[in-house]
Amino acid sequence: MAEQGSGGNVIAALCSFFIPGLGQLVQGRLLPAILFFVMCGVGYFLWWLIVPGIIAALVHLWGIIDAATFNNRRY
Fold it and tell me: Which regions span the lipid bilayer (predicted)?
C-alpha cells in the first residue's frame, strides 16, 4: 500500500466497514485481520448480552479507522 490517505486505504476501510478485518486482510496484515474478525464476530454473536455488542461495535469502528490510517513504512 501507499501512504496514509491513499486510495488503497480507502478501499481497505470500505472493506472493513462491511466485514470486520477484511480491510486488514486486503492490506496483507493477517494477524490483525483475524483478531478484528474474531473479536467482532464473538461480540456480535452475543449481542443479546448488550455489553459484548457494544464492545464489538467499538472494535469494528477501531478496525475501520485502523485500515484507513495504516501506514506501511517501517521505522
Answer: 6-26, 33-65
Range of the domain at 48: 7-69
The mean of the pLDDT values for the chain is 90
Instruction: With CA atoms as reference, report the closest residue to 69 among 1, 12, 17, 5.
Output: 5
DSSP helix/strand/coil, 75: coil
Supply the DSSP string of 48-69, one letter for each residue.
GGSHHHHHHHHHHHHHHHHHHH
Count of structural domains within the chain: 1
Residue 68 pLDDT level (bands cut at 50, 70, 90):
very high
Q: How is residue 68 written as a grid cell?
A: 484507513
d(CA 16, CA 10): 10
What pTM does this model have? 0.86
Contact 60, 40 (CB under 8 A): yes
